[in-house]
Design brief:
Strand order of the largest sheet of chain A: 1-4
Shape of chain B: globular
CATH architecture of chain A: Orthogonal Bundle
Helix content of chain B: 25-40%
CATH superfamily of chain B: P-loop containing nucleotide triphosphate hydrolases
Structural class of chain A: mainly alpha
Largest sheet of chain A: 2 strands, antiparallel
Radius of gyration of chain B: 18 Å
Distance between the termini of chain B: 36 Å
Oligomer: heterodimer
CATH class of chain B: Alpha Beta
Order of helices and strands of chain B: EEEHEEHEHHHHEHEHEEHH
CATH topology of chain A: ABC transporter involved in vitamin B12 uptake, BtuC
Number of domains of chain A: 1
Helix content of chain A: over 70%
Number of strands of chain B: 10
Chain lengths: 334, 247
């Protein structure tokens, strides 16, 4: 990145943060719900982006982890315990289950792994629906309370939105740190060339399991916020279609790009609202748009930006080289 | 001089074919051992068996006297054995510097310190030194996938040295590298051998490269060892001339 590009990025980031903090003040109840949903889905998509985008492990089970997190938080809070505990339980439970789900990935890859995780997704749904003693089955768990924070109630949409935004901000900072740490490098090595990674001392087994566990734990956190957001949890939102939806967020936004999931979640959550005027045609238009995007840029929206930026920088670099050559005629003559 | 690597009666069968058929050799500290032989004679399979990428059917591999047969490549690497590959094996989307840091980071600290410690695992300076040593300076921040073939070969070699290894196995380091770069590479390898006391095993088809770099040469043919000795002795061995070098 050049200096100007970095300045632009900082200014742009500051504007986005300001908008996320101040714009909701003028939004109505529904607008706040949509924005909160975007924050919550972004967290789940960030988790999947770690597993899929950075570490290269296909997973069709992220929706199931959102479900596990949502049920964990719902059960904890409806028993009169604080949401904080619910979040800890959700994260810990999904971390462990995600770790276990990572084991098949040590043996199978790509579509085979997709099938294993798909089976897990179905299994989780069946547990949500059939284990009535725990989940109340198809009737679901209602009246999930929203927490009080430092004496402030988040029952109203605006404070709860700020809670979601705070969670997203925390996840963003932690994730930024993670992908820049040696772990992030090891995850990418896993994606790009596991055999070579192994010969460099990278314990690919442990990092694969970690990628699943951390990605799933973020799915759990997302679910633990989803439950008090909608205040009602039943099995239907956590079918395979949520996993596919999260997968689409990651891929449309740009798999393996830091900001991909934010963009993907925005499109998945907001586009249906913008296309509402088309009534019944909305799903068709949505599908066509996604297909067109992936044909034009298989690396997602940020892939387009990345390509443009790289082209520009390459051109600038070759212009610099040409100028350097011209100023050194004896060098060029050799 | 201590014995770094000792391979005894190594055998690897794929179905009915014995790719490596009872190979024994050893490498002493500070040596540069060359392994030569016609294509398909089992050189790379021998490497893969030593390095744990393949499990040998029979035989034993000892590192500094310790039996390491069938150990996982990542564990072996942390014991100080590193390698380069015959076909290019760098991480194309990571920059040159990131590739180098990756090559050393798993030797530093614990999983926890790698998560919470500095992003470069304290290897930034070592990486820059290696970049300078292999003359990759202007390319330090470029994605490795954008480098020329020869430059990627140099990077691949540099990565093998990031963790200050005890034993390095180089699989055809000279393949596809132009003559100027080849001379550079040879000089670098010699310098590292001399200064860091690293021990090398080199598979190579470029005879000039092998004969001028190696202190001892093992010749393989059809999965067996045909001859062994100094470059001069091997070069004049009639059996070697017959099987490989040609008249």
């Amino acid at each position: 990145m050049t200096r100007a590009q970095r300045l632009f990025a900082i200014a742009f980031g500051a504007a986005v943060i300001a908008a996320l903090v101040f714009a909701p003040l003028s939004l109505n109840r529904y607008g706040l719900y949509i924005l909160s949903l975007w924050s919550v889905m972004s967290i789940a998509a960030i988790g999947l982006n770690l597993t899929l985008g950075y570490a290269g492990q296909v997973s069709l089970a992220q929706g199931a982890f959102v479900g596990i997190g949502a049920y964990a938080a719902a059960i904890v809070t409806t028993n009169g315990l604080p949401l904080g505990l619910g979040i800890v339980v959700a994260i810990a439970l999904c971390f462990v289950v995600g770790w276990l789900l990572g084991y098949p990935a040590l043996r199978v890859q790509h579509h085979y792994l997709a099938f294993v995780t798909l089976a897990f997704s179905t299994l989780a749904f069946l547990v949500f629906r059939n284990e009535e003693w725990l989940t109340k089955g198809i009737y679901g768990i209602s009246d999930i309370p929203r927490p009080n924070l430092f004496g402030l109630s988040t029952t109203k949409p605006l404070p709860f939105y700020y809670l979601c935004l705070f969670a997203l901000g925390t996840v963003t900072l932690a994730f930024w740190r993670l992908v820049r740490s040696p772990w992030g490098r090891a995850f990418m090595a896993l994606r790009e060339n596991p055999v070579r990674a192994l010969s460099l001392g990278v314990d690919t087994r442990r990092y694969t399991l970690m990628a699943f566990a951390i990605g799933s734990a973020l799915g759990g956190l997302s679910g633990a916020l989803y439950a008090p957001l909608v205040e009602f949890v039943d099995p239907t939102p956590f079918t395979l279609s949520l996993s596919l939806n999260l997968l689409m967020m990651v891929i449309v936004g740009g798999s393996g790009f830091f900001f991909g999931p934010y963009l993907g979640a925005m499109i998945a959550v907001l586009l249906p609202e913008w296309l509402r005027f088309t009534q019944g045609y909305y799903l068709i238009i949505y599908a066509v748009l996604v297909m067109a995007l992936l044909i034009y840029s298989p690396t997602g929206i940020l892939g387009i930006l990345d390509r443009a930026l790289r082209d520009r920088n390459a051109k600038a670099a070759s212009a610099l080289r040409a100028a350097a050559k011209a100023s050194l005629p004896e060098e060029a003559a050799r | 001089m201590s014995r770094v690597l000792e391979v005894t009666n190594l055998r690897k069968r794929f179905g009915g074919i014995a790719a490596v058929d009872g190979v024994s050799f050893h490498v002493d500290e500070g040596e540069i051992l060359g392994i030569i032989g016609p294509n398909g004679c089992g050189k790379s399979t021998t490497f893969n068996c030593i390095l744990g990428q393949l499990t040998p059917t029979e035989g034993e591999v000892r590192l500094d006297g310790r039996n390491v047969t069938g150990m996982r490549p990542s564990e072996l690497n942390r014991l100080g054995v590193s390698r380069t590959f015959q076909l290019l094996q760098v991480f194309p989307q990571l920059s040159v510097r990131e590739n180098l840091i990756l090559a050393g980071q798993e030797h530093k600290g614990t999983m926890l310190s790698r998560l919470f410690g500095p992003p470069d695992a304290g290897l930034g300076a070592t990486a820059d030194q290696m970049i300078g040593f292999f003359k990759l300076g202007p390319l330090a921040d470029a994605p490795a996938g954008g480098l020329s073939y020869g430059q990627q070969k140099l990077l691949d070699a540099a990565m093998a040295f990031m963790a200050g290894p005890r034993l390095v196995l180089l699989d055809e380091p000279a393949g596809g590298v132009n003559l100027t770069m080849l001379a550079d590479l040879k000089e670098r390898l010699r310098a590292i051998n001399r200064e860091q006391g690293a021990t090398f095993v080199v598979i190579e088809h470029n005879m000039e490269f092998v004969m001028s770099l190696c202190t001892r040469v093992v010749v393989m043919a059809e999965g067996k060892i045909l001859a062994e000795g100094s470059p001069a002795k091997v070069r004049s061995d009639p059996a070697v001339i017959e099987a490989y070098l040609g008249h």
